[in-house]
Amino acid sequence: MKIVDVHQHYGFVSYKGTIIEKRDADDGTIFEDYTIRKCKELDMMVAVNGLGLDGKRKVFYDANDAVERFFKEYPQYIIGMAYIDLDDYKPGDIDKFFKKGFKGCKFIRPKKRYDNPDYMEFYKRCEYYGLVALFHTGIVGATEFWCPKPGAYSDNMNPITLEAIGFECPDLQIIGAHLGTAYYMVACFVALASTYRTSNVHFDISGGDFLGPIYEGRYIKKNIPVSQVLFGLDEPPIRYEEMLKRLNDHFDDLGLNQEEKDMIFYKNACRVFKLKYEL
User: Fold this and answer.
1) By CB atoms within 10 Å of each CB, which of 27, 131, 175, 258 scores lowest?
2) Please, are residues 42 and 83 in contact by the beta-carbon 8 Å criterion?
3) pLDDT tens digits, residue range 229-252?
């Protein structure tokens, strides 16, 4: 079975001593080496975004330069996603990241709602260049690693905001993270509604231990079409096997067939990112 992980942050290796760029973690593991090893073992591609995690300071930081080096060294395994701060960056920065070879952008922690008109030019440029837009949606977890900005509250990332973006940018491939984290039904129906017009709003089921409510809600195929669901880890890569097993068990419990599993684990992502990985 092939895998495409659409949601990985640069620098996650272990829960202790997460790393910066190519320096060692406390356990002696280097993020790039470990991730590539897992790609080979699991027949996997990973979309790594530039919102990196500095284990010493326990805050997120801009790791776009490191991600660029990583995907250019391993283009057969790594998909580059640029971290874009909607309040500190300029829409013209999208042009620069496209020219560098990034395939998408990661958005999180805006001071205004994602669908605020002030941000729409960012998304229009992503649409123009064919870049995938990954949005954190819902409540923000991992408080020990959280570095808040004044005014950057979770309600600004309500999955309902993706509806307007999907309508305004019908050719933009949109991924909402974590199935809306606490706004699960909203996320499901935003994705479902998009299939009536553009089919461009998807949600990943990432976040490890935060997936409990998704398992309990049994939303996939019942409330959100399988075609709009993507696999993401958003956890240290030491958890790939664990999370893949848990999701496979959940999909079996839901009665999904192998084709539907393949859609979630890699085929939908191949369509969204225009990959030939499934061939």
Assistant:
1) 258
2) no
3) 999 999 888 889 999 999 999 999
3-state secondary structure 242-278: HHHHHHHHHHHHHCCCHHHHHHHHHHHHHHHHCCCCC
Distance CA 137, CA 205 (A): 11
Q: What does the pLDDT look like over 99-108, one tens digit per residue? A: 999 999 999 9
Q: How many CB atoms lie within 10 A of CB 247?
A: 19
pLDDT tens per residue, range 138-184:
988 655 445 557 777 889 999 999 999 999 999 999 999 999 999 99
SS3 10: coil
Angle, helices 120-129/92-100, rounded to nearest 10 degrees = 30
> Residue 146 half-sphere exposure, CB side, CA atoms within 13 Å?
14
List residues bridging with 134 in a β-sheet: 106, 175
Name the pTM for this structure: 0.93
Surface-to-core class of residue 235, CB atoms within 10 Å of its CB (0-12 exposed, 13-18 middle, 19+ buried): buried
How far apart are alpha carbons 98 and 101 in whole angstroms?
5
Total residues belonging to the chain: 279
3-state DSSP of 94-134: HHHHHHHCCCEEEECCCCCCCCCHHHHHHHHHHHHHCCEEE
| Range 3-273: architecture per CATH | Alpha-Beta Barrel (3.20)
